[in-house]
Design a protein that fits this description.
The chain has about 350 residues and is α/β, with parallel strands linked by helices. It contains 15 helices and 12 strands. It folds into 3 domains: about 120 residues, 3-Layer(aba) Sandwich (Rossmann fold); about 100 residues, 3-Layer(aba) Sandwich (Rossmann fold); about 70 residues, Rossmann fold, CATH 3.40.50.10800. The protein has a 5-stranded parallel β-sheet. The chain has a 4-stranded parallel β-sheet with strand order 2-1-3-4, with helices on both faces. The longest helix has 20 residues. The structure holds 1,3-dihydroxyacetonephosphate and iron/sulfur cluster.
Length: about 350
């Protein structure tokens, strides 16, 4: 949550108290100046800053008014009264904020902070699948762009995917675009996952005893890199470790971990559990953010995978976003209205 400080020195002292173990002091001094100026400008411009859990520690712990996972931040974006929403996250998240709160100016501090999942599927791909499987409800992960959301019945995040799929009538669901999340949700909901090849049409098996989920080929370029061997190696060295995985990891990794959930669910797990030490199989910055907020917990620092898209959002970029009103997110109104229906249905489920 944003630090309240009356001077740069006070900002530096508060950041140092929290971040001394995770950010080098020489960096902290520079970052404190940036954070102080951002928080001053934020008030002057009547802006709110939303920060995803993957933001780098100095940013995460100093400027966001709200932090959280995709679902929590979508809810905050929908409720905010401020004139400007600065979204410290990636483009699909800022776009979701614009979809839900179209009269506000929504700024993404980097010109193009993408996501390999969002890039994996187009609106035309969804239209083609709907033509192949008429009448089958379409669920899309929020990690997609507005034109893809506009083609779908309901969105989901990693925090509510099982509840969203369970809310749909019938035995068959199209679940896009994350192959691994789809497989993990299929296991939890008792459905069978089918990934059609890009060219061939699949014949669905008939009958209520054959609940099915039709997926896509998208993968998170960060989470697909974790392996069961990583888990085995860490357990061999630290038998008492609690291992947490994001459900964008492969089903084998999720099964070998002790817990799987959204970024917020992982934070909650560490706060509540009493394991001797923890390992997060997710984007690197989050381990540092948890370590800074929970100094009494031992986090294994074996992480080497930083999301290149999240990494583009820095304090420097965020200051420029506020100074120069950049980079403004726009969504054509016709697309926005259809996408909003899918996102709002998701929010209504929880
Ligand atoms: P969460 O919704 O769990 O925060 O995940 C977003 C994301 O991009 C994970 O890679
Ligand atoms: Fe996309 Fe993966 Fe980065 Fe999340 S971590 S924003 S899913 S590329």
């Amino acid at each position: 949550m944003a630090i309240q400080a009356n001077s740069v020195q006070e900002m530096y002292r508060q950041m140092q108290a929290k971040l001394a173990d995770v950010v080098p002091d020489v960096e902290l001094q520079i970052k404190a100046e940036l954070a102080y100026e951002i928080n001053r400008l934020k008030v002057e411009k009547n802006a709110v800053i939303l920060g995803h859990n993957y933001m780098e520690p100095a940013l995460f712990h100093s400027i966001p008014d709200f932090v959280g996972d995709s679902l929590a931040l979508s809810r905050k974006a929908a409720q905010t009264d401020q004139d400007i929403i600065v979204f410290c996250g990636v483009e699909f998240m800022a776009e979701t904020a614009k979809i839900l709160n179209p009269t506000k100016t929504v700024l993404l501090p980097a010109a193009k902070a993408g996501c390999s999942l969002a890039a994996s599927i187009t609106a035309e791909d969804v239209r083609r699948l709907k033509a192949q499987y008429p009448g089958v409800p379409v669920v899309t992960y929020v990690n997609t762009y507005a034109d893809v959301k506009a083609e779908t019945d309901i969105c989901c995040t990693s925090g509510n995917a099982v509840a969203v799929v369970n809310s749909l009538p019938g035995d068959t669901v199209i679940f896009l675009p994350d192959e691994y999340l789809a497989k993990n949700v299929a296991r939890e909901t008792g459905k069978r996952i089918i990934i059609p090849s890009r060219s061939a049409t699949l014949t669905l098996e008939e009958g209520p005893e054959k609940p099915q989920m039709i997926g896509w080929h998208g993968r998170c370029e960060v989470h697909e890199r974790f392996t069961v061997a990583d888990i085995q190696n860490v357990r061999a060295q630290f038998p008492d470790v609690a291992i947490l995985a994001h459900p964008e990891c492969s089903p084998e990794v999720v099964e070998a971990a002790d817990f799987a959930g959204s970024t917020q669910a992982m934070i909650h797990f560490v706060e509540q559990a009493d394991a001797s030490r923890y390992l997060l199989l997710t984007e690197c910055a989050m381990g540092d953010n948890i370590a800074a907020a929970n100094p009494q917990k031992e986090m294994l620092r074996l992480c080497s995978v930083r999301c290149p898209h999240m990494n583009q959002i820095t304090l420097e970029q965020t200051l420029d976003a506020l100074r120069y009103n950049q980079y403004e997110i726009t969504v054509p109104e016709e697309t926005r209205l259809r996408a909003a229906r899918a996102v709002e249905r998701m929010i209504a489920i929880g």
